[in-house]
Design brief:
By secondary structure, the protein is α/β, with parallel strands linked by helices. The protein is 43% helix and 14% strand. The longest helix is centred in the middle third of the chain and has 20 residues. The protein starts with 11 loop residues before the first helix and ends with a strand.
Length: 778
Amino acid sequence: MDTNCPAWIMDQNIQEFVKKTLLSKEIYNPVFFRLKIEDDKKKFNSLIESTNVFLYDEIHSQLRELIKSRNPRAKFTTAEYQKLIDEHLHGCSYEEYGVWVYYPWSAKLVHILDEIEFVELRTSANRNKITKAEQDILATKKIGVIGLSVGQSVSLTLALERGCGELRLADFDTIELNNLNRIRTGVYNLGLLKVYSVAREIAEIDPFFKVVCYPEGILEENIEKFFTSGGKLNAVIDECDGVNIKILCRIKAKELNIPVIMEASDRGTIDVERFDLEPDRPIIHGWLDHLTIDFNVLNKLRTSEEKLPYMVPISGLESLSPRMKASMVEIEQTITTWPQLATAVTLGGALTADTCRRILLDQFTNSGRYFIDLEKLIADTRPKKELEFPVPPAELDIVEMNEIAERAANQLNTPQIIIKPEDIVDLVTAAITAPSAGNNQPWKWLYHNSNLFLFHEKSRTLSFGDFKDIASYLGLGAALENLELCARQKNIGTVLHLFPLQDTNKLVAAIQFSAAVNDTLYQPQKLVRYIHERFTNRNLGERTPIAPKIYDSLKKAVSSVPGAELIIKSHPGELDEFADIIGAADRLRLLHPDGHYEFYNKELRWDSEHSRVTADGIDISTVDISPSEVVGLKLVKDPLVSQLLVEWRAGKGLERVARKSIAAASAVGLVLMPQFSSLDYLLGGRAVQRLWLSATEHSVSLQPMVAATLHFARLNHGNGEGMPDFMKEEFKILYKRFEQLIPEIKGREEVFLFRLCMAEKPSVRSYRYALDKVLVMV
């Protein structure tokens, strides 16, 4: 009961009973009465006269059991049993034989054999799984248990087997109702400290078993006492949630050469660190070596999010079950902490107690991590449908490119001028610095017979998000803008023929060169200088107002492309709505099987070396996310996790990164074009590049946030083809909100959504393919 409950809502008599019960909450040791001792007999009589006790006397059946256990081959009659019992009593009355044990917390008084005979009989069924000699060895051992959820099951199992002679229990927490899915205790123990609950239950099984309680849990101030007071521990079982205590107890165990055992309540995971045999062994098998162990930091970790970067190496991200991974994504979203089931906790108690016994008896000497995964051992062998993903087309080869280029050239005028090969190199080098979806670099260039041809390299761009190639055309359009700006700087005129062949969309543009420079470009002298400075900035920054004149400059840059228009929203309420829409779109993208596959296998690069080797994709170090968010991404990498989140209609945690980005944004912008067509998206890409270069000129950072608009295009122009029904319905709702937020889109096409921010430049830039991979000169 909540002791903070206002007194006036309870009857006075109830209050008195509650107070009386509270006084007994710290009692966990039973009281012994041996009636042969006169003082004990007086106290015993006084107790049963003054207290309403429940008295249990099965001493006769215990004596019969004892005699049977000592004579396993004999078949005694009832009369023979009675004779042997009388001889065993040797004139002592039944009432005075053995010991009476009183449990103050339950008012139960129980008559049992005294310690030596009690232990002998209670452990008789252990033999010969545990021999008498081994039982005697175990009786000398001391085990510390830290954390009493799984630790409760471990402690009770150890006590049941008498797997040691002393248990030291440490936990500061009380039993709550949501613990009762895995801790076997009664509702009357709600609010009771877990150490006392476990100690009481052990005492009710075996009142002679030594239990020492540390109700304050493990602290830096008491850890030495826990490990050494009354004799050094022989083993430590770590089942606590606190990262600081997990690390602290291992440091102490290593110092004292004490083995540590941990059970993870997932896939039957048992972890063993034999510091007794390997004193130089790194804690947690060295999996924390990349982290700074600073207790000033560790002691302040409170939320699951703060603990995740430490807990995942400890628990082993790659070896977690899909359900546990998916659940960890949902922590502080739809659940409060990582789940534990009674089946896993019970299994864990057995596995840990068994491992601990074998360590203490020198029957197991290894360190390592082991799995008793019941879902693998007792597997559902029904065939499972494997996920299938679209197979990208083969890479364009020179023969095909030449054939297409020659057909296109037949429809073009003779080139006005022939430019030098080194100029072609410069032009294409500038072009390929353009942005592209996921940095997939959709271009391939062919210089043939004095014409330059731009191809769409679909082997790199096939994706669920690239509906009708619209994302690719944005990147290809941006590349064309760069090329023309660079040509203008060199006083080289350009003549662009967009989609020159009707029977193929592989060829995006044929570029011819002339002496007359292109005067239709927007501020070419200004923008060209920012081609190699432009970058995607995913650093969060702070929400800082941007001067209206800068917005005007950006709008002019966009509108310089015929039909293009820029809408900018900067009101806090509008940005909050954008955060909802963009966050939800990012979540849905990762929950779609194709979107998930493409993000993890084509787009995301986990480190700079990975980025350098592939020369494409997005280096995770360019994304301003916390270590716990990196862990979250790694958890969702498993496609089974994504499938579970879909089944649960969960995954809100996947919106966090986008929401943080918008929370730090100064504004959100949207580029509009007249209609949904390949040409409009290609021209839209040119408008986007002019916008981006202008933003670079004004030191304003830009980050694309295009998952929403790309999926809206699939919804509106492809009837949501390939989307599961729930996803299609959610995107419909999101689009309605989007229309209400930006009424200007009516009758136009939204082609590029982004955020503007004031943030530090990223320390890492995206790589580009080597020129010889994207340019062929024949």
